[in-house]
Amino acid sequence: MARILLAEDDPSLGPALRDLLIEESFDVTWVTQGDDALHMAQQNSHDIHVLDVMLPAEDGFAIVRTLRGQGDRTPILLLTARDRVEDRVRGLEAGADDYLVKPFASTELIARIRALLRRSSPEFADPDVMHYCNLHLRVSTREFSIDGEAASILTPKESALLELFLRYPGIVLTRSQLIDRLWGYEADVLENTLEVHVSRLRKRLERNGCPNILTVRGLGYRLQKGN
């Protein structure tokens, strides 16, 4: 289980990110102050630091410079609402490994964290190929196949949606969870937009014996084994 130091002072975003990371099986330490983040990074071992730039007491840029100056090579991902090129360059030149601009989709955050972990240690290498029953998905290329047939390429949203179902087969994923993961915590997405993507993915799975996506009335969707 990868250990993550999360520094985010937004009272609504911080808990949401903490819960998201815990759901993804990360061990999370969450702080809201820059000086606390620096102290925790210096005193405890983490596999990755996820830092908001605009933190009280000590900003993310200063934390990165201090840690790198002390020889700490732990991967660092900066989160910020600043989208100017010069701000991104400033963060990377300070020693950060990646820079994600808010608002962002939850799936992109998780993908970037896993990419940094894979780069830093083979211990955290994720298998690229996911499967359930006779379904197979190669995440990096969005190649999808059933029963070993020639692979077809899913759209980015179809691939992200199927990846979520493959990660949690048999478990009900609520509409709000799916919208948050696919479009981001601040996205204004109608439920019928999600339904369109689910419907398109269902058509990909229309085959006897193939797992299918079941609508759970009033809740969301579940990937279940076919008949």
Detailed description of the structure:
- The chain has 227 residues and is of the alpha/beta class.
- The chain has two domains: 3-124, Response regulator (Rossmann fold); 129-224, Arc Repressor Mutant, subunit A.
- The protein is built from eight helices and twelve strands.
- Strands 2-1-3-4-5 form a five-stranded parallel β-sheet, with helices on both faces. A four-stranded antiparallel β-sheet has the order 6-7-8-9, with helices on one face. The chain has a three-stranded antiparallel β-sheet with strand order 10-12-11.
- The protein is elongated, with a radius of gyration of 19 Å.
- The two termini are 35 Å apart.
Describe how the helices and strands are arranged.
Layout: E1 3-7, H1 13-23, E2 27-31, H2 34-43, E3 48-52, H3 60-69, E4 76-80, H4 85-94, E5 98-101, H5 106-120, E6 129-132, E7 135-138, E8 143-146, E9 152-153, H6 156-167, E10 173-174, H7 175-183, H8 191-204, E11 212-216, E12 220-224
Parallel strand pairs: 1-2, 1-3, 3-4, 4-5
Antiparallel strand pairs: 6-7, 7-8, 8-9, 10-12, 11-12
Helix pairs in contact: 2-3, 6-8
Counted up, domains total 2
What is the β-strand count? 12
Strand content: 15-25%
What is the H level of CATH, i.e. the homologous superfamily of the largest domain? Response regulator
Summary keywords:
227 residues, four-stranded antiparallel sheet, elongated, 8 helices, five-stranded parallel sheet, Rossmann fold, 22% strand, alpha/beta, Arc Repressor Mutant, subunit A, single chain
